[in-house]
Write a structure and sequence with these properties.
elongated; 3 strands; 2 domains; Arc Repressor Mutant, subunit A; 180 residues
């Protein structure tokens, strides 16, 4: 069993494998192949080396890990495997709590959010970053909002929950769930 300290090759190997798994999960959430990463990073991250990281066959230095997190636009700690015994099933969970029952999902266009500006937009951006970290969801394109999340967004934009999707639409941030 792996403990909290790394004092043997078995534990180092397990951690390297788990680290590689996390790196792969984030890359796949970004919908990138190994070759895509190499091309988009101008060969800073070679496909063969990144693949070796992902398989746990090659150690990743802290500066390289930090740079990879910047490339993927995620916090560094999201590339690290959990050490507190959380089961893998918790990673990227998608259970929808009951609370928003209008029939339509509220989907925020993260690309449009990246291009928007203004004081409310910055608060929304920071709030959604917290949600992404909590869910470990870094696809970078859209984020489906749950009932509790929508209540907080409604408070940020100064509306009631029922009016929040309309306000988000006015801001260019709402993506209709029927649009793929």
């Amino acid at each position: 069993m792996a403990g909290s300290s790394d004092n043997g090759d078995g534990e180092a190997g397990d951690y390297s494998t788990q680290l590689g798994d996390r790196i792969r999960v984030i890359r796949r959430q970004k919908r990138l192949s190994l070759q895509d990463v190499e091309a988009r990073s101008d060969a800073e991250f070679k496909a063969s080396v990144l693949g070796a990281y992902e398989r746990g066959e090659r150690a990743v230095s802290v500066p390289r890990l930090h740079r990879l997190a910047e490339f993927y636009n995620v916090p560094v700690d999201q590339l690290l495997p959990p050490i507190d015994g959380r089961p893998d099933a918790e990673v990227g969970g998608t259970d929808e709590p009951s609370g928003w029952t209008t029939g339509d999902k509220v989907i925020i266009d993260l690309v449009a959010l990246g291009e928007a500006s203004g004081p409310q937009v910055e608060l929304i951006r920071r709030y959604l970053e917290i949600i992404q970290v909590k869910r470990q969801d870094f696809n970078g394109r859209v984020l489906t909002i749950r009932g509790d999340d929508l209540q907080a967004l409604a408070a940020i934009v100064g509306t009631g929950v029922d009016e929040a999707p309309d306000r988000l639409t006015d801001m260019g941030l709402f993506r209709n769930s029927s649009v793929s």
